[in-house]
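Appendix B. One record, verbatim.
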Amino acid sequence: MQKQTAIIGAGIAGLSAAYWLEKKGHTVQVFEKNSQPGGAIITERQDGFLIDLGPNSTLETSEVLKNLVNDLGLAPQRVYANEASNKRYILKNGQLMAVPTSAGAFLKTKLFSFGAKLRLLKEPFIRPTAGDDISLADFVRHRLGQEFLDYAINPFVAGVYAGDPKTLSTAAGFPKLYALEKNYGSLIRGAIGGARERKKRKEVAKDRAKMFSFQNGMQTMTDTLAAKLKTPVLLDATITGLQKQDGKYQLTVEHAGQQHLYTFDSVILCTPTHVLAGLLKNIAPERVAPLADVTYPPVSVVFTGFNAADIGRELDGFGYLIPEKEKREILGSIWSSTIFPGRAPEGKVAFTTFVGGTRQPQNARLPEDELVKLALGELKSIVGINGEPVFVKVKRWERAIPQYKLGYKKIQAIFDELETEHPGLYFAGNYRRGISVGDSVLSAHETVERVEG
């Protein structure tokens, strides 16, 4: 008899898990509260602009992700980032400075002082940090120094997590970085040894992995996954109850104005942690409080299109990130039309600017006219733009990205414990092993392997 599996949440993790399970012979039903699948992956086309309102790309870091794209038949639609986007900028003293990507460029850069460069050379001789957890800020300050924290790690964390290195856990949020020190005693020595290990595992380091999207944006992948499922995703479906009875899982689902009761052999939960907390209140009430408390800061995305002739500098990179020390009102901006083709009409350019995060949550919640004015003011000041936008699109994410704060290893352990204590109950998503699209796909793949036993 085929196993019946419910998947709650039709983001990239839920859809990937459903796709793989169906291929293995499972009967799967995916439930999604929104009116379209894809979760945070949303692509729109308006006035000739192609707009990714959530993740704009992913990194080809694993064979699992690469094989999934190929298996879906999407290889012909995959587009790799233009070589120009390898250059990334950091704002320092109001000026955009390229992040050095070679030893020679590092020695010449004005992004870091001579003292900071000397400090970096000491890294292999610095003792390892103590304890099982440490904030990313303390970890980087200890190993690389304050200036590297301020002008490399702080803006990077703002761009990736919309977070603050002072509160994020190195062990939970950056486990590979943490492992380099634990296994090799040094990040520099570990980078050399870790490269050999990744080669054996057929993995690619994130700083060397190829960035890609699709000709019609990231939603191509989630749309294709949903379309290939034998049982369509049940949209506009709200789970109002999850019970465990006689080793099976009963779901109460509100759909089309009616309540429906379903029974499954197993359930995979692919929703944000605050939603998980509500779903688990009948199965593991003693575990829900920490899940409900996980921080997801608000982030607003402001996509703007301009006439190329109005831009005062060459858009020769991925974009820029802003260190907290610069005291600006945005987290950074990516040059969308430089990174991938077809993102803007001929003669136009496109920017995607990020506002809010844990640094300035109040900015993300500004009224739309004030939000746009703020983003445009910073964009014009930093990039040099002599004209008004020809296109503006705003997307607000009230709960954007889970913050792997100090102590988050205990949160991750809860999922392991619940899967052991409640056979048939599984967890996958960006709260489990990493926040990127690639990490979410790997989380789904690992979950499917556990379901298969």
